[in-house]
Each structure stands twice: as C-alpha cells, then as structure tokens.
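sorry for the late reply, my laptop died twice this morning and i had to redo everyting from scratch. anyway the thing you sent over, i finally got around to it. pasting the sequence first so we're on the same page, its 176 residues, then the predicted structure underneath. double check i copied it right bc i was rushing
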Amino acid sequence: MGGRNFEICIARPDADGANFLLSDHLRAVGAKASQYEEGMRRELLKLAGVLHDTGKARESWQHYIRGEGSGVNHAFLGSALFFYLVQQHNLPRDMVRYAMFLCRDIACHHGRLDDLEADPPWIGGWQSGALSEMDVEGFRRFLHSECPSFSSLPEEGTRLEQELRQMNRRWRKWFM
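ok and here's the structure:
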C-alpha cells in the first residue's frame, strides 16, 4: 500500500474545522450528479462524481490540505481513471461522446472548461508516480462498493499507472 489509508483521507476541513472524509465527499457528489438521469447516463454521471477528486487521496495532497505542504494538481487523476474505466465498455457512439465530455469536465472541474481536443484532458496535469502515493487497494474497494460495473482496476498500482500512460492513443481514436 502506498500513501495514507483511503478510508481516512480527507477532502477538506469543513466549516467548523472538522475533517470531511474524501470517501463521503465522493459518494455524495456521485449521488447528486446522477440523481436526475437514468440508464447509462446515470451510471456515467455517478462514476464521474465518484472519481472527480480521486487525486485528493494522494499523500502529497493530504499533506497540502493539512497545511504540511504546497498545493498539487488533483483533477487529472480522476479524469484519467474515468477514461480508463469507461473505455473498457462497448459504449454506443453517443455515450462515447458523452463520456469524453465527462472526462473533460473532471479534468477541468476547478477551472475553465476546455474544448475536446485530440490530446486527452488529463495530459497537461499528469504526474508520474501519482498512484504510488495512494492506497490503491483501499480506493479499489471503495470504487467497487459505489460503481461495481466500473471497478475493474489492475491489482498492481504500477501496472495501472503504465496502462494509464498508454491511453492517449485510445483517446485520439475516440476523438476521431
């Protein structure tokens, strides 16, 4: 296991200074994002909500939120994981496009929404070794409990990181 136990990662301190658990935040956003849709759109929206802040599980981000380090980009990881998981499914063309927009939305969720481009939206923020800073196994269990049909991650974090780095070609194929 790399990084802090996923179950104790925090999303942010809440208004009264208590810690707001990352798992609670991701679960709530996934539920809220998907509440007005049905079928595959609902599943994709829930997955996007559950993954949008996954990068906050990194040890460097946990140090930052506790005032022990400088800020780090966290949005790229959720975007890359979202694409990794949805591209394993045989989505109809309209859902492929929808998934690409959600992937972009995750990557840009703290800034301006960019247009879809031939380069994947996570590429500009990608930080090698990001998964080595995470409790990947704890995250995998959480993901399976929230989105079981989109939870097939490799056992090894290093293998997953290698596969994530190779997804650029698949994105470009979807983009065409």
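Residues 6-175 form a domain with the Hypothetical protein af1432 fold (CATH 1.10.3210).
thats about all i looked at so far, will dig more tmrw
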